[in-house]
Specification:
By secondary structure, the protein is of the alpha/beta class. The chain has one domain (4-135): HUPs (Rossmann fold, 3-Layer(aba) Sandwich), CATH 3.40.50. It is built from five helices and five strands. The protein has helices at residues 13-29, 59-73, 87-97, 112-117, 120-127; strands spanning 4-9, 32-38, 78-83, 102-106, 131-135. It has a five-stranded parallel β-sheet, sandwiched between helices. β2 (32-38), α2 (59-73) and β3 form a beta-alpha-beta unit. α3 packs parallel to α5 (120-127). The longest helix is centred in the N-terminal third of the chain and has 17 residues, at 13-29. The protein starts with a strand and ends in a 6-residue tail after the last strand. Residues 110-117 have low confidence and may be disordered.
Length: 141
């Protein structure tokens, strides 16, 4: 049913749960999996007081290596994408670039005022040119 799946992730337990769901689904369907880690230049570890990064590698690049291992543990070799775009834009843009037919996101941020004002899952759901699966991650620490 789905041939190319894209999932956005960061270094949170919620994102890891979303990657596990996407990897399990991709493995079961024989689909390609693309993991997008987006950390803007204003975020992330290893920041200097001047605002740059101590290491040449952007933190998203390190994160995707960890997430690739997580996907492999769940039966699929993932294609990795590190981005400095906003998370929602990065996921939608990569999905378009790889001609994805499914984007998987967690529902964190879809409660209260954020549901009305916007969140990554909401932006992805309204901007994607393919199906979007929003999984329940509310119980994830």
């Amino acid at each position: 049913m789905f041939n190319t799946i894209v999932v956005g992730a960061n270094d949170t337990a919620v994102a890891r749960e979303t990657v596990i769901t996407a990897a399990t689904l991709a493995a079961a369907m024989g689909a390609d999996l693309h993991i997008v880690a987006a950390i803007t230049n204003e975020q992330g570890p290893n920041r200097t007081e001047q605002g740059g990064y101590i290491h040449d590698d952007h933190p998203a690049a390190t994160l995707v290596v960890d997430l690739q291992g997580l996907a492999k543990e769940h039966g699929v070799e993932a294609n990795m994408h590190a981005s400095t775009e906003s998370p929602a834009h990065a996921v939608v843009n990569i999905a378009e670039h790889v001609d994805a037919d499914l984007i998987v996101v967690g529902n964190k941020g879809l409660t209260g005022a954020r549901r009305m004002l916007g969140s990554v899952p909401s932006h992805v759901a309204h901007s994607a040119h393919c199906s979007v699966m929003i999984i329940d991650t509310r119980g994830t620490a």
